Amino acid sequence: TFALVVSWVTYSADYSRYLPLDSSRRRVALASAGGSTASLVGCGLLGAAIQTADPGRLLPNLIVASVPVAFAYCFAAFIILAELSSNYLNVYSAAMCALAIGIEGQAVDGRHRRRGPGRPDRGPGPLRRQRLPGQLRQLPHPHLRLVPGLG
């Protein structure tokens, strides 16, 4: 679980660009670490409490045995959505890392509209390939003046 938290560092760094300029680095780091720690400890304690209820049985069996069968579909949907959302964030973080270190990519407008029967209109097409500084110039953000060469 620690590796998962560390893998999202770039994702949280993307949000931190919206903080006020006078934000304390220490308070931001403590808030981030505190949130991660609280959720990890809370889930760990819950898992330990469930397992100690009947140590002879496996944890999934304890959970399934304690709820009605109808909830199985809700749990399955929740697990699928949780996996999709966490993997989406990992892919986003990887893309931010790639842009930050200068790996070029190509952004594509994913909207598909149809004009007439069976003729898709794919919109404006691929966006121009740029390195990170060129993309940063396009962002309407007040902190960009702090980046040397961009302001």
UniProtKB/TrEMBL annotation:
Compositionally skewed regions (Low complexity) per UniProt: 124-134
Keywords: Membrane, Transmembrane, Transmembrane helix
Disordered: region residues: 110-134
Transmembrane segments: 28-50, 62-82, 88-105
Protein name, UniProt field: Permease for cytosine/purines, uracil, thiamine, allantoin
Organism whose genome encodes this protein: mine drainage metagenome
